[in-house]
Amino acid sequence: MFIGWWRETGLALLQCATATPLSQLFSHPQHRHTAPARVFSCTISVDFRTEDQNDMCKTLRVRWTIIPKTAPQPWIACGGCGGLRAFQSSGKIRLNANGRKLDAWLIYKCLTCERTWNRPILERRNVRDIGPAVLEALQSNDPHWIRAETFNLDALRHKSLRVDEFAEVEIAKEIQHETTNWTRLAIELTVPVATSTRLDRLLASELKLSRSKLQALHAEGMVRTDPEKADILRRRIRNRTVVTIDLSMETERERSWKPLATGNYAVEQ
Question: What is the rounded radius of gyration, in angstroms, for the C-alpha atoms of the chain?
Answer without folding.
Answer: 32
